[in-house]
């Protein structure tokens, strides 16, 4: 597995985007809407940071992390054999072509597994 990106829920997407651009030299990589979430993905060198706007309740302490895998379906099957099922996905993100699934860790953290197409 390889590190792919980190994600943060934020209260104000525009303010957070400006903060990471100004303070840490990130640039906008892409943006998208998934269901009711507005998302901006920023990039600095090889680092991707996903900002997810949530004005109501998630932004205070609910990050997720993502590992890139070579074959998502094989990984899903292996995890299923260990009695771990995705809580979301798998699905393809049309704007990026990424194929992804989410799992929940023991302490409620979200773990994303992603295959680039």
From TrEMBL:
Domain of life: Bacteria
Pfam entry (one): Glyoxalase
Domain called VOC: residue spans: 2-116
CDD domains per UniProt: VOC (cd06587)
Protein's recorded name: VOC domain-containing protein
Taxon lineage: Bacteria, Bacillati, Bacillota, Bacilli, Bacillales
């Amino acid at each position: 597995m390889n590190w792919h990106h980190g994600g943060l829920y934020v209260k104000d997407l525009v303010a957070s985007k400006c903060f990471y651009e100004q303070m840490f030299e990130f640039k906008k990589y892409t943006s998208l809407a998934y269901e009711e979430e507005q998302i901006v993905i920023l990039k600095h060198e090889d680092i991707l940071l996903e900002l997810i706007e949530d004005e109501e309740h998630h932004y205070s302490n609910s990050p997720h992390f993502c590992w890139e895998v070579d074959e998502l379906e094989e990984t899903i099957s292996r995890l299923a054999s260990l009695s771990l099922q995705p809580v979301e996905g798998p699905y393809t993100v049309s704007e990026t072509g990424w194929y992804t699934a989410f799992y929940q860790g023991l302490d409620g953290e979200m773990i994303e597994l992603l295959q680039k197409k």
